[in-house]
Design goal:
alpha/beta; Metallo-beta-lactamase, Chain A; 7-stranded mixed beta sheet; 5 helices; 12 strands; 23% strand
């Protein structure tokens, strides 16, 4: 597994595409000692994550929503490290969110602050999905996953992100948007794809 520095303070652990259960990028936010969605297939990647949690002095896992490709392995990582899980509330189990045994230590809601990051609601892909915003970068999870979720809410989340005008957009799937390139792409998507 690799680490890519996106910008000082933000590291990406790219999705492992050959791993059918952990196809979402994870992000380490070093300023607030957090890792966002370190999905992994235990026990294969568990040791790497335990070492990474220790190396970066990670205090919390942040989940943006509870779909399996973002949460698989959470209980094992939590058991191995004692790390807290912070997330939006869980909804009822679905095929994408089977019964998950990890413990939620803190529920996150719009306006909560974690270090320099503010929690923002980004529904659409999942009705409780959240993102993180630091005034420059937006960590958006699956809010820009075109073709999945509720179109009306996805449009609203796209519009909200365009208004924020992030310099950097960090999605769970696909390429990172740098240098304000998201606005152009989002406007194209809003005009035709959603």
């Amino acid at each position: 597994m690799e680490l890519i520095e996106i910008t000082p303070g933000i590291l990406q652990v790219p999705a492992r595409l050959r791993n059918t259960h952990a196809r979402a990028h994870a992000y380490i936010l070093t300023d607030c000692h957090a890792v966002v969605e370190p999905a992994h297939w235990p026990p294969v990647e568990l040791d790497w994550w335990v070492e990474t949690v220790r190396r970066f002095e990670i205090l919390r896992i942040i989940l943006t929503h509870h779909h399996m490709d973002h949460t698989i392995g959470m209980q094992e990582l939590q058991d191995a490290t004692g790390i807290e899980v912070w997330s939006p509330p869980r909804g009822a189990p679905t095929e994408f969110t089977p019964h998950q045994k990890y413990r939620i230590d803190r529920e996150l809601h719009e306006g909560d602050v974690i270090g320099k990051w503010q929690v923002i609601d980004l529904p659409g892909h999942d009705y409780t999905q959240i993102g993180l915003w630091d005034g420059r970068s937006a960590l958006v999870a699956d809010a820009i996953a075109v073709g999945t979720g509720l179109p009306v809410d996805l449009r609203a989340s796209f519009r909200r992100l365009v208004k924020l005008d992030p310099e950097i957009v960090l999605p769970a799937h696909g390429a990172v948007f740098l240098d304000h390139t998201f606005e152009f792409c989002a406007r194209l998507m809003l005009s035709g794809l959603l």
